[in-house]
Amino acid sequence: MAQAEGYRILHEADLRDYLAGVPDLKALLGGEAASWSITEVGDGNLNLVFIVKGGRSGVAVKQALPYVRLVGESWPLPLSRAHYEYLALSRQAQLAPGLVPALLHHDEALALTVMELLEPHIIMRKGMVAGTQYPGFANDITTFMARTLFFTSDLALSAADKKEAIADFAGNHALCKITEDLIFTDPYRVAVQNHWTVPYLNTLAASLRADLELHVAISRLKLKFMASPEALIHGDLHTGSVMVTEGQTRVIDPEFAFYGPIGFDVGAVLANLLMAYFASSGHERSPGDRRAFEGWVLETVEEVWNEFARKFLDLWRAGAAGDAYPASLFAGEKGAARLEAERQAYMQRLFADTVGFAAAKTIRRIFGLAHNIDFELIEDPRRRAISEARAVRLARTMMLEAGAFPTIADVTAAARKLRDWQPELATG
Predict the structure, then answer these.
(1) Are strands 37-40 and 47-53 parallel, antiparallel or unpaired?
(2) Contact present, 114 and 61 (Cβ < 8 Å)
(3) What is the pTM of this model?
């Protein structure tokens, strides 16, 4: 989808005039347009995001830029990603109602979407840096993942419907290319945009570039990402793409959506929880003052996988209508038992994928282009490097020795063992 004629970047005055010209939005905001407050709050890597408040209510406005905001105009990016994000949000709203922001308006030419203003929600990652626990998160995110992933898979769709759905998102290849490079390739080679905590992680960065077994493992994961259109995945599902209160969860920013491997989304969630766990000690004000938070994080890691698997299987058992595993092949008591055994085997394969993708997501956030504030806000670079090295050690083992993690409890046990491990850091 080429850049639409009439596209322009909307700054405050332009945006005010634009919104005032859409009757439904003008009525929703209320009051005189001149009195509306407009604040640019985009702290992401790609887009402009505004909060607009009127006399009656507020909205969030997101506009795609024709380049990667984090880098600048030297890295052009198609505006069509706004179309795919809007399409993904629409489908997610149908499949997981109440777990994404309500869509209020979309302008294809301007690559602009107006959504419900989420208040008093905050970005989950910011809350976790502060040590806040979110008791409803695991239930909400597993409902979101189980429903959006199951109902867009071959287990729920006819082959024809699935192929048409794949085609709807096939044009989002520029965003896929970002993932393919920044997650699965660049951290393992010399790349100008890579960066890490220097000098402390210099030796570790060099070891990634020389580790051929790791190169094979990450390349297998890259192939899985490129060649396995299992379901409509969010594509960038992390704690920075979730807005929360203690009682509510909303998933945002699915502009990387396409039909890909289910384990990529689940692994991304687990990776970001594990990174929050390892970063936590770097945010301590006194030794051990975040132990309760860290315990909650690892409990949440286990709950996310276990509840996702339970909900996904429940949907499958409830009467899958897709063309995969046709019911006529599994008739009778013996057939039902054999199908149930295959469901368990399917989930075990999915768990292995999830573990590998979680490892890939962790390594890229420490050595690639875009990092996590979980680590970045640790002010002392040496303390930051210690936390990052612990996360990388677990990630490398997860990627190379998936068989060592038959259950999610094995992952959290390994994380606990590394919590106080003292890595050898480079000094120059």
Answers:
(1) antiparallel
(2) yes
(3) 0.96
